[in-house]
Design a protein that fits this description.
Number of domains: 2
Number of strands: 9
Largest sheet: 9 strands, mixed
Shape: globular
Strand content: 5-15%
Radius of gyration: 23 Å
Helix content: 25-40%
Order of helices and strands: EHHHEEHEEHEEHHHHEEHHHHH
Structural class: alpha+beta
């Protein structure tokens, strides 16, 4: 792969992870055994540095079960040696410095609706919903060093794995932690570490452009890797919290029904490339704002973070808060407490960002481009010098500029993915598209009442085998 990026010049990327999960406790068993006395709500001792952040005058209301579960979950984790801070409500607006692990409430987590579902969530350990109290919670990591996708070093994942170990398996008290495809999500943020003074640092604009194009061009390929609950289908958890990125980009008129099927516009890598690599303003700040509008809004103004890959944090705020996020957030992965699944996903999204970094640094060498591409560049940008900038970046994608079906192998080659990871993801994709999930196969992601299946631009969606990516 032609690139000028070397190990010495690689950006010092950092990541953070948000792990949604369901917490449940059998309060009758906890109250009946003196050994569990400290887990009871009225006996929980709060650390002095946490009182102000969790104080709420309504907390004494016994109906506030989610808050009760927050403290009980923290107590259970601390029994296992976890060092974390409780937030009654997560701080927003750039006020959180992400220096410690944080446990907070999460309303998006879905509770079991039957005892059978509870039993499935807990491998049969808890069988009666009426005996349990539930809370939807989220564990938020501090800023951590990304894993080394070349050498395989875990780096910050060591801390993540330690917390996952605290949550998995049998607990010291009659409680459980559960994260499943139907009830929870994993969100991974990647960016640059803050300055010594704590100020957030921007990712390079051209890296963001390349990352956006790679994620959008390969969106259907990446979705092959995911559980069917994470594809945007109706009545799945993700439907309200993460739409496909291709929904945006101005491809569907705002006043018309949303179509991702054959009734809607066909995805064109060329068309989206000239939008993303538009150097019209010539100002870093203005071009970031334009890119954010393209990627995160159907109107260009109402910015949404509810997308598979969320670029809303790249928008420069009018008056930045002390710790404003400047990360890209990957929101598509299903909830899990599996060390292997979490590690593989963090390695994968890190590899996506590293691929974008290599493309940013790669020398532009002229190659043939489709004859209909240049007129699109000219139409989008009148200034010849800026047209050249767009074309020079397009030379780095000679295959993608030709409208053809993508493949797992093409994506994994771009990511420079080692063989063992290719095999792991291929096996996961093959299972996720197997007859075990055939009830999802022809569902729609269009706006009601359209129920046509989505138009896809890679193999593996209609029950046929997925070609081996190695």
């Amino acid at each position: 792969m032609a690139t000028s990026a070397t190990q010495q010049t690689m950006l010092p990327l950092a990541f953070g992870i948000e792990i949604e999960f369901l917490f449940g406790i059998d309060n009758a068993k906890a109250a009946a055994n003196p050994a569990y006395e400290d887990i009871l709500r009225n006996n929980i001792i709060l650390d002095s540095d946490q009182v102000d952040e969790i104080y709420d005058p309504e907390f004494d209301d016994a109906s506030d079960r989610n808050a009760e579960g927050l403290f009980q979950a923290a107590s259970a984790l601390r029994r296992k040696g976890a060092n974390l801070r409780i937030r009654f409500a997560a701080k927003s607006g750039g006020l959180e410095d992400f220096s410690r692990w944080i446990l907070t409430q999460e309303e998006a987590v879905e509770f079991p609706t039957s005892s059978a579902e509870l039993s499935a969530y807990t491998n049969g350990e808890f069988r009666r919903c009426e005996n349990c109290a539930f809370a939807g919670l989220e564990l938020i990591s501090p800023i951590l060093k990304v894993p080394d996708v070349r050498e395989g070093s875990l780096n910050g994942l060591v801390e993540v794995n330690e917390f996952l170990g605290h949550m998995r398996g049998r607990q010291d008290v009659p409680c459980f932690f559960s994260a499943e495809p139907k009830n929870a999500s994993i969100h991974v943020h990647i960016g640059l570490p803050p300055t010594a003074g704590g100020k957030a640092v921007d990712l390079p604009l051209n890296l963001l452009r390349h990352l956006a194009f790679i994620c959008i061009a390969f969106e259907d390929v990446i979705s092959l890797l995911h559980h069917p609950e994470r594809l945007g289908f109706p009545d799945t958890k993700i439907e309200l919290y993460a739409k496909p990125n291709r929904v945006f980009l101005g491809r569907n008129p705002v006043t018309s029904p949303l179509h991702n099927c054959r009734e809607g516009p066909e995805f064109s890598a060329q068309d989206e490339f000239v939008k993303i690599f538009n150097y019209g303003h010539g100002s870093d700040r203005m071009d970031r704002a334009r890119l954010c509008g393209i990627l995160c809004s159907r109107t260009g103004y109402d910015i949404s973070r509810s997308i598979f890959v969320n670029f809303s944090n790249i928008m420069p705020p009018p008056s930045p808060a002390p710790h404003s996020k400047k990360t890209v957030e990957f929101r598509q992965h299903h909830g899990t407490l599996s060390v292997e699944e979490v590690n593989q996903w963090v390695f994968f999204v890190t590899a996506l960002v590293r691929a974008a970094e290599r493309k940013m640094n790669q020398e532009s060498v002229e190659v043939p481009l489709p004859y209909d591409f240049i007129p699109k560049v000219i139409e989008k940008q009148g200034d010849y010098s800026k047209q050249i900038l767009t074309v020079q970046q397009a030379w780095k994608y000679p295959e993608i500029m030709w409208n053809k079906k993508r493949s797992l192998k093409e994506l994994f080659d771009l990511l420079d993915m080692p063989l063992e990871r290719r095999m792991w993801w291929w096996q996961k994709a093959s299972y996720s598209r197997s007859n075990a999930f055939k009830e999802y196969r022809y569902l729609s992601t269009c706006a009601a009442p359209c129920d046509n299946p989505p138009r896809r631009d890679c193999d593996g969606w209609d029950g046929e085998g997925i070609p081996r990516p190695y």
